[in-house]
Amino acid sequence: MAVSEDSLWLAQTTVTTLMTGVIWVVQIVLYPLFKPYAEKGEVLELEKLHEYYTPKITLVVLPLMFTELGLSLWSLMEERSSIQVLLFLLVVAAWALTFFISVPCHNSIGSASEPSLKRKAVLRLIRTNWLRTALWSGRACVLWFFLY
User: Between 42 and which of 37, 50, 55, 111 could a Cys-Cys bridge form, CB atoms 3.0 to 4.6 Å apart?
Assistant: First the structure.
């Protein structure tokens, strides 16, 4: 069964919009919850919150990220336009930031022995997550702009 270009575009727009919503909630609501614990050196509370949060958000984010990557790659193979290349590069950049910056920050929050290292990881996570938020927001804007 062939999938129309419009259906593929709509699927990308839907998944990216969901991911954009998630990343904004994470940036504005969830990551700032870590900051007071990190600043006060309340390591046990920070670890508990992080331990609770991480597997749950992964259940939401990982399927969306894999679906988005797959749809973007599929769309690029179907139509090699500059817009599809841009959209694919935005996904790749978001993945790179996630796995080379955000995941190591999360690992430090969960395993660093020094409270100061946890604090630095939380602050870096909040600061660098703005880049991911911008990438997903930009991708959503492009997709919505060209939807019809």
Answer: 37
What is d(CA 135, CA 142) in angstroms, rounded to the nearest whole number? Answer: 11
pTM attached to this predicted model: 0.91
The pLDDT assigned to 42 comes to: 85
Tokens, residue 127: 């600061």
CA torsion angle 106 57 29 32 (round to 10)? -10
Please state the length of the chain.
Answer: 148
User: CB of 88 within 8 A of CB of 79?
Assistant: no
Residue 72 to residue 85: CA distance in whole angstroms: 9
Helix (H, G, I), strand (E, B) or coil at 56: helix
Q: What angle do CA 29, 117, 47 make, to 5 degrees?
A: 50
